[in-house]
Amino acid sequence: MLGYIIKRIFISIFIIFAVLSLTFLLINLAPGDPSSMYVRPEISPETVKLIRHQMGLDRSLWIRYICWFREFASGNFGISFSQMRPVSDILRQATINTLQLTIIVFIVQMVLGVLFGLFSAIKKNTKIDRGINSLLLIFYSIPGFWLALMLILIFSLKLGWLPSSQMKSLLVADGILLQLWDRIKHMILPVTVLSLPFIAYTARFVRGSVIEVLGQDYIRTAKAYGLSKNKILYQYALKNVLLPLTTLIGLFLPFILGGSVITDNIFAWPGMGQITVQAIFAHDFPVILASNFIAALTVVAGNLISDVLYCFVDPRIKI
To answer: Does the structure show a pLDDT above 60 at 319?
Structure first.
């Protein structure tokens, strides 16, 4: 197991390096100049050259790549072109804000997805099953940006029940409970938008797995021995259903982070999605590369976690 994990870590490092190198090449070949945000008609050409020199844009692409790789390998993400402060400081707070959403979304979609899928499988081919499947199809099909705008229109503008943007209100009374409730209200809409498609996906996956497991020979044998339906379902069937579900655990987080790009910008949530989009429009190369690094690291780590968990859940699996 340890040798397998070490081998996968080395492969993952190579994959992340390849992704970052390709990203560096693409953003440097893309049209647009990061120094243009500081250039004004009244600025002299000498000042423009000085700005480009300070940003390292007057060097060849190959030299810039070597300098970037040397700094990046040492853990230095550089200075943001647009905000003129260390990229690590920008991403540290943005990552914390994004994790607040993704962790809650992950828990919500796993719990509700398993419950919906289990209940739908138990009521297979009934009106309840068809109703749940239709509802899940709607959840999965609704575009996230449209749903976000509709929720803001209804619950924020029309009813005034929930805030439409940011992480907290400008004026919040003192007290941990009041501040916590304010944060929860700000999270309800973005968590809903991010959770619904994953709830549908998980529920459909669990439903199919439960129906397949309930048709196995050992389940029929358990029924023949007179075991109760609840014991068969929760003690035997559900354990085998959770086995393939572990493969989805590591894959959900990257998709949730991808969905947060839209959600963060619509709800003005100061997370990785908003930071990344702002960096792209500003041609902020250091921030783009650093955020891409976090995204690639999340994908690779998620896949590794899924493989390792699968081996722990099912001892029959050999590396």
So the answer is: no
What single-letter DSSP state applies at residue 316?
T
Report the Cα 156 to chain-centroid distance in Å. 25
The phi and psi torsions of 60 (rounded to 5 degrees) equal -70, 160
DSSP three-state, residue 267: coil
CA 277, CA 268: separation in Å to the nearest integer? 12
* CA 289 – CA 314 distance, rounded (Å): 38
Instruction: Give the chain's largest Cα–Cα span.
Output: 90
Q: Which CATH superfamily, name and number, covers 96-313?
A: MetI-like (1.10.3720.10)
Give the relative orientation of helices 176-214 and 127-141 as an angle to the nearest 10 degrees.
120
pLDDT at 257 over 70: no
Per-residue pLDDT reduced to its tens digit, 102-118: 888 888 888 898 888 88
pLDDT tens per residue across span 87-102: 888 888 888 888 888 8
Q: Which residues contact 50 (CB under 8 A, 6 or more apart)?
A: none
| Residue type at 140 in one-letter notation | Y
Please report, for residues 29, 78, 279, 293, the alpha-carbon distance to residue 75 in angstroms, rounded to integers and kept in the order given. Answer: 24, 9, 20, 11
**Assigned token pair, 277:** 């989009």
Q: Which residues are paired to 86 by β-bridges?
A: 79
Domain boundary assignment for the chain? 2-73, 96-313
Contact 204, 136 (CB under 8 A): yes
Q: Find, among 311, 255, 304, the residue nearest to 12 by Cα.
A: 304
